[in-house]
Amino acid sequence: MNARFSFRQIAGIASVIIAMLVNLPLIRLANRTQLAIFPGLPDTVFLFFRLLFHIAFTFFFIELNRYVLLQKRYKPRMNLLGWYGINLLLFSILTALFVGIMLLWYPERPILVLVTTYFRTFFVWGTALLVANFLTVLQQNRSMQAENERLKRESLQAQLDGLRAQLNPHFLFNSLNALSSLIREGSANTQPYLAKLSQVLRYSLQVQNRELVPFSEEMQFTNAYSFLLTMRFGNNLQIVNDLPTQSPWLIPPMTLQLLIENAVKHNIVSGAKPLRIHLAADSISNTIRVSNGNQPKPEPADGTGTGLPNLENRFRLLTGKTIRIVRSESEFSVYLPIISAV
Q: Where is this region: Disordered (predicted)?
């Protein structure tokens, strides 16, 4: 049920409490030693054995009914009423066995043994059935909650896997396309570009199954990716990264790369209109700000248009927080909530 008590432990505790409450009047009567000379009064030995019998009796019926009701073992041969009939039969047999043993021990007290044992044990039996039904319902509710939590985690993981599957092909396509352009041009920067591309691709493979990564690792990846873009676009693209490299933060992998890639893909990058991308931390709003000049291309760029929605979903699913997008005539900014590692 929780970290402290299991359902079986609760059944054991309930058995002791029920047995003590049922036998308490006779325990108090037996303690009046000045009345012990009168015949028919219970003695300590008799009460001790009946107390043990009631504890075992209660625990047996709680656990038996909890198991049968939880697993519905009485189906399909009988209905619930038939199962309670079997309970009544077991009650009669076990009580008769105990009474028979006690009569052999106390043949001079048949009324005491018969009357007090049967009536009190019947009360114990009925209480045990109520406790068993209560624990069964409680355990079913806990099982349903655990199952719902498991399904929720699986659903979130499936959504995250789907988001990663959308991000990775997009990134690979643009990186390989940039390398192809450099090779066609026969640029001397091909080898340095290839080395950085190898670093970037290796990182993208390493983080595929990770939900969050240290910010320092993401910064190394972002710097490598920025190097690839500046080699490709030259002075037409300026990426200013003022983010701290060793901050104790976490971030969904490839987040900054996606925002930089989006800025390049949807805006004009040319000598006449250089594109400036700025990355900085905003201590007031506790966010990471990625901004770029708002100079959209005349024709919409090819793509699915799911980059920013996917990124927002990742933050929402992983942290419960959302990103903030601010657009003006001259600038486009995305604010990412900072995720502390502490």
A: 289-308
